Every structure is written in structure tokens, then in C-alpha cells.
């Protein structure tokens, strides 16, 4: 992502971090399908070997903690320094780091799994291939990727007025194709209709990295 976009997103989430953390604290209670797709991801990671998982764009840490409760060795990364502070305060037993998803301070193949839970939604579409390339670089061969995003419900890729900053709604097929071009193979997908207080359909893609070791191979 370009630097102005990174700065805009970080500052926007810094400004609402406390309210966002309060809103997100019980985010999974009303959505069994969300819990189910996270559980499926966790089971796949556990059954294909041991290793570290990163939640990229972890916000105040509630999804990272949920993944920990599912038995994963997980840590969180977020662009917003305030979000990282709140996550560390709420979950002192977990590791949280400040950083950008397109330039991770990780060795090649360091991760066994990645969860991007509504964290690519603000990424300009032209920049998203570089994110997927970075995900591919830091995942070990056979590692798993879970994407959650706002789905376009039969329409084209479009922007919308997200409450924090401008975001995108993706056709699920287009997003799966883009990830496929980066070396990911789709395992499954889940579409969830909007719940109470939600405006848009939610999309989820569960993917596996092919048996390659580097971003440029």
C-alpha cells in the first residue's frame, strides 16, 4: 500500500480505537458461522503440523485471543499503534506487534497460518497483489490463509463509506482469483448474510499455499 494510504488508515483507527475495542469485544457471540470458519481454519492448521500463526490487522486483539483459545500459537500485527496498546492491555499473555501487512518483519516461511480478518478491506485494489505476495513469502509451504471481507453481493468491486475510513466490497470470485495468482489454492468459502446492525454480506475464503518456498520462485 502507498504511504499516504497507510498513514490515513493508521490515523483513522487510532482515533476510534477505544470505541472500536468496546464494540468488537464480543464480536463473535452472535455469529456462529464466523466462529465456525475460524474453527475450521484452526483445525486445518493443527492437523497439518505445528507452527506459528499471525493475525494480520489484529486491531484490539479479540480475534487473536479467539484463535489462541482454539489451540493455536498465535500473535497479532496491526498498523495502528493505539490498537496495539489496547490489545496488549487486554491480552497481556499474547504477543502483539506494530507493523504493516505488506512489509512484515518475518523470515521467509516463518508462519504456518495467516488470518486476515477484515484487514484488507481498506487496501486499494491496485496494491492488494503486493499484500498477497508478502503473505506468500512469510507462509511455509502448505500453510493456510483465511480472508474475511465485505462481499459485493453480485455487483462489481466497489468502495463504501466504512465507519472508520473508505473500504472496498469485493466479488468473492475476483478476490479468490487474485489470491490464486499469488499461489494460493482455495479450500472453501463461506458467505454470510448481514446480521442485525450490519449493512453488507460477509465473505470468507479459506486457502492453502502451494508447495513453494519464496515469493519470487
UniProtKB/TrEMBL annotation:
Methyltransferase keyword on record: yes
Key word Phosphoprotein present: no
An annotated GO BP: methylation
Cleavable signal peptide: none
InterPro entries named among the record's database cross-references: Methyltransf_25 (IPR041698), SAM-dependent_MTases_sf (IPR029063)
Protein's UniProt name: Methylase involved in ubiquinone/menaquinone biosynthesis
Domain Methyltransferase, residue spans: 53-143
Pfam families: Methyltransf_25
Amino acid at each position: 500500500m502507498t504511504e499516504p494510504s497507510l498513514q490515513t488508515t493508521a490515523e483513522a483507527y487510532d482515533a476510534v480505537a477505544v470505541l472500536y475495542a468496546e464494540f468488537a469485544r464480543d464480536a463473535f457471540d452472535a455469529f456462529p458461522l464466523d466462529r465456525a470458519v475460524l474453527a475450521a481454519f484452526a483445525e486445518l492448521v493443527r492437523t497439518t503440523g505445528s507452527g506459528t500463526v499471525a493475525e494480520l490487522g489484529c486491531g484490539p486483539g479479540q480475534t487473536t485471543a479467539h484463535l489462541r483459545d482454539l489451540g493455536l500459537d498465535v500473535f497479532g500485527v496491526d498498523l495502528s499503534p493505539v490498537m496495539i496498546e489496547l490489545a496488549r492491555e487486554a491480552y497481556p499473555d499474547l504477543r502483539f506487534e506494530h507493523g504493516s501487512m505488506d512489509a512484515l518483519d518475518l523470515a521467509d516461511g516463518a508462519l504456518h497460518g495467516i488470518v486476515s480478518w477484515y484487514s484488507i478491506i481498506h487496501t486499494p485494489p491496485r496494491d492488494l497483489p503486493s499484500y498477497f505476495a508478502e503473505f506468500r513469502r512469510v507462509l511455509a509451504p502448505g500453510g493456510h490463509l483465511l480472508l474475511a471481507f465485505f462481499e459485493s453481493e453480485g455487483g462489481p468491486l466497489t468502495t463504501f463509506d466504512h465507519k472508520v475510513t473508505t473500504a472496498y466490497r469485493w466479488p468473492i470470485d475476483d478476490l479468490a482469483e487474485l489470491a490464486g495468482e499469488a499461489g494460493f489454492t482455495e479450500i472453501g468459502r463461506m458467505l454470510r448474510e448481514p446480521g442485525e446492525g450490519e449493512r453488507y454480506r460477509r465473505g470468507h475464503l479459506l486457502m492453502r499455499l502451494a508447495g513453494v518456498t519464496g515469493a519470487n520462485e
